[in-house]
Amino acid sequence: MKIYLAYTGGTIGMVPSEQGLVPDAAFAEQLAQQLNKADELPHDFDIVSYPTLIDSSNATTQDWQTIARDIEKKWHDFDAFIVLHGTDTMAYTACALTYMFANSDKPIIVTGSQVPLYKTRTDAMNNVLGAISACEEGVNGVFLFFAGRLIEGDRAHKAHTSDWQAFNSPNHPEYGILGIDWRWRESAQPKLPMTIQIPDMDESAVTLLPVFPGVTATHWQGLLNDDVKGAVLMSYGAGNAPDKNTALLALLKGAADRGVVIVNVSQCGAGRIAAGAYAAGSALVQAGVISGDDMTYEAAFVKLHFLTGLGLTAKEIKTML
């Protein structure tokens, strides 16, 4: 099997510096040495470090496009793709690749680590080897693999800063769990044709609207500027926000009326939006806010970027969320 591994930056390949941990350009060679030691890995690995390595906290929509175009360019040369990435925004990148390589007929697996490879007690090789194992199993699609969990790219959420199990799938069972052997989720989804779409995405096109006690229209006015085409509203509970604040609701309605797609997702760690179950949620519906159902905020944010990048109208986008 020919497997392409792209090191984009992140903790897995970082080394100490005077400013703290920074990505190491020599990481690809170090990883290759580790993989070549393993006789039970009879694969042809091509490990590449990107020319500009980033801490994933600096990742932007342009980085999603760079990774996707790199994979697309090499699509016919490899059987599987592993993206080594920082954990801070790994869920966003996995989600973006899910939309850009819809119904992928090859494995694209995003992984990284909580502790750098150079450390003696690190999770780096376990995560890399787990991602390789998933490729060997022939799973097709875009996934995030971390600490034995294989999660669909648009379902992953970073849930912990310091546990080995940094990611979870709050509203959907994991696709696979790796112990001594793999345990797979039963799935009877129809096989759909693969499509690759890598749109140009404007970093200023999508924003987040946090709901908190005392939130006012003034807090959100700058966020809902004229450049914005989509917004993720981070609501309470099952989709609630202050329904007595008429200025706040008027701001939302004005944005929705001018074509901003506003998607309601819950601040809670799990569960789905029940639009209109409470009066405080019904007010959002009347203001033009649509339900994000059980999407993570990462998925809602990325999907709005992807769909607006495709040049779709607000009406078209609403039918695809």
Automatic annotation (TrEMBL):
<dbReference type="InterPro" id="IPR006034">
    <property type="entry name" value="Asparaginase/glutaminase-like"/>
</dbReference>
<feature type="domain" description="Asparaginase/glutaminase C-terminal">
    <location>
        <begin position="206"/>
        <end position="320"/>
    </location>
</feature>
<dbReference type="InterPro" id="IPR037152">
    <property type="entry name" value="L-asparaginase_N_sf"/>
</dbReference>
<dbReference type="InterPro" id="IPR027474">
    <property type="entry name" value="L-asparaginase_N"/>
</dbReference>
<dbReference type="InterPro" id="IPR027475">
    <property type="entry name" value="Asparaginase/glutaminase_AS2"/>
</dbReference>
<keyword id="KW-0645">Protease</keyword>
<protein>
    <recommendedName>
        <fullName>asparaginase</fullName>
        <ecNumber>3.5.1.1</ecNumber>
    </recommendedName>
</protein>
<dbReference type="Pfam" id="PF00710">
    <property type="entry name" value="Asparaginase"/>
</dbReference>
<feature type="binding site">
    <location>
        <begin position="87"/>
        <end position="88"/>
    </location>
    <ligand>
        <name>substrate</name>
    </ligand>
</feature>
<dbReference type="InterPro" id="IPR036152">
    <property type="entry name" value="Asp/glu_Ase-like_sf"/>
</dbReference>
<feature type="binding site">
    <location>
        <position position="56"/>
    </location>
    <ligand>
        <name>substrate</name>
    </ligand>
</feature>
<dbReference type="InterPro" id="IPR040919">
    <property type="entry name" value="Asparaginase_C"/>
</dbReference>
<dbReference type="GO" id="GO:0004177">
    <property type="term" value="F:aminopeptidase activity"/>
</dbReference>
<dbReference type="GO" id="GO:0004067">
    <property type="term" value="F:asparaginase activity"/>
</dbReference>
<feature type="domain" description="L-asparaginase N-terminal">
    <location>
        <begin position="2"/>
        <end position="186"/>
    </location>
</feature>
<feature type="active site" description="O-isoaspartyl threonine intermediate">
    <location>
        <position position="11"/>
    </location>
</feature>
<feature type="active site">
    <location>
        <position position="87"/>
    </location>
</feature>
<keyword id="KW-0031">Aminopeptidase</keyword>
<dbReference type="InterPro" id="IPR041725">
    <property type="entry name" value="L-asparaginase_I"/>
</dbReference>
<dbReference type="InterPro" id="IPR027473">
    <property type="entry name" value="L-asparaginase_C"/>
</dbReference>
<dbReference type="Pfam" id="PF17763">
    <property type="entry name" value="Asparaginase_C"/>
</dbReference>
<keyword id="KW-0378">Hydrolase</keyword>
<dbReference type="GO" id="GO:0009066">
    <property type="term" value="P:aspartate family amino acid metabolic process"/>
</dbReference>
